[in-house]
Design brief:
The complex is a heterodimer of chains A (121) and B (192).
Chain A (H helix, E strand, L loop, with lengths): L9 E6 L26 E5 L5 H9 L5 E6 H5 L4 E4 L8 E5 L9 H10 L1 E2 L2
Antiparallel strand pairs in A: 1-2, 1-3, 2-5, 3-6, 4-5
Chain B lengths: L1 E2 L2 H6 L1 H9 L4 E3 L7 E3 L2 H21 L15 H19 L15 H13 L5 E4 L5 E6 L5 E6 L4 E7 L5 E7 L2 H12 L1
Parallel strand pairs in B: 1-2
Antiparallel strand pairs in B: 2-3, 4-5, 5-6, 6-7, 7-8
Helix pairs in contact in B: 3-4, 4-5
The chains are: A alpha+beta (121), B alpha+beta (192).
Chain lengths: 121, 192
């Protein structure tokens, strides 16, 4: 894997531990944009050529909670930046930032991603 | 979601009750589609509360205030009290969030903010959906019949940030004072 992201690549995110995940479920079943507000940048796992079930299984081995994904193009169409930041324990780790210089997503960006988010587990 | 045959459930009932208690619904397929789902009491209570909230959201979301109609007259007050209780209960859970609650070092929400939001919820005639953020704020959300969406972010500042995403794709931002009166006026304008 390198720093290049394909526009259709999925970015998986665990929406918090199980005890807090229901707090972010809206009445229509979607996830509140509040779940996309993180001053440190939104931590995700890139698809990285894996099947969705393998990516989810890998996330579940480290996180608990609801797993969703957005696509790279959902980020680029609102000017958000996806950064590939692998770690020793997670070779797929990436972050979605509001811009090159700002980690926090804007309200508009958070709303957009919350509407594009797809539940996988 | 776990799927288990009726025979299997009968033979291992404790196992499946434990699975359901731990938050995983168990589906038991039966002949003629007479399927049942085993869920925990806490999930059942959550579903019931969400069902009441959904009815309220439909009620408020579909409401357009008529000109000259005194504010508040159109809102079903009994329904509002149910939802207020739901929100205050959720606020209590939000107040119990510990450091790192978002899995990325988020701090607990300030007690003063919880108190402030509690007072607002106690006074607002039209209740929002409420959500905590890792920015140490609480977000109020409203949706109207036009499919516009409004967020009001309450922090410890004197002003709250209002963000509106309209059905036609346009967006707007504004600041309003953090008071029940100012928020109520903005909410009524949003539904009007």
């Amino acid at each position: 894997m390198d720093n290049e992201f394909k526009s259709n690549e999925k970015l998986f995110r665990a929406v918090y531990p199980p005890e807090t995940a229901p707090m972010f479920r809206r009445l229509d079943g979607s996830i509140s944009s509040a779940a996309f507000a993180d001053p440190k940048g939104l931590s995700v796992d890139r698809e990285g050529g894996r099947e969705t079930k393998d990516a989810v299984s890998f996330m579940q081995s480290r996180f608990q909670g609801r797993i969703i994904y957005v696509r790279v193009k959902n980020c680029s169409e609102i000017g958000a930046v996806v950064k590939y930041l692998p770690s020793k324990s997670d070779p797929y780790h990436s972050e979605i930032h509001g811009s090159e210089g700002t980690a926090l997503l804007s309200k508009s960006q958070r709303r957009h991603l919350s509407q594009k988010a797809v539940n996988v587990y | 979601m776990v799927v288990a045959k009726q025979m299997d459930v009968r033979a291992n009932i404790k196992k499946y009750f434990d699975i359901a208690f731990d938050g995983e619904p168990v589906i038991v397929p039966r002949k003629e589609n007479k399927n049942v789902i085993i869920i925990s009491e806490s999930i059942y209570n959550e579903l019931m509360a969400n069902s009441r909230m959904t009815s309220y959201a439909d009620h408020i979301g579909g409401m357009i205030f008529e000109k000259g109609n005194p504010p508040g007259r159109s809102v079903d007050k009994n329904m509002t009290e149910d939802v207020r209780a739901f929100n205050l209960n959720k606020l209590e859970k939000i107040s119990e969030l510990k450091k790192g609650w978002n899995g990325n070092g988020a701090l607990p929400l300030p007690k003063k903010l919880i108190k402030r939001v509690g007072a607002l919820l106690g006074a607002l005639p039209i209740q929002p959906e409420i959500f905590p953020t890792a920015l140490r704020t609480i977000q109020f959300e409203f949706d109207n019949a036009r499919r516009d969406h409004m967020e009001i972010e309450i922090g410890m500042d004197d002003e709250a940030e209002v963000f509106i995403a309209r059905y036609d794709g346009t967006e707007s931002f504004e600041n309003i004072p953090v008071s029940a009166e100012a928020i109520d006026n903005r909410v009524r304008a949003f539904y009007g």
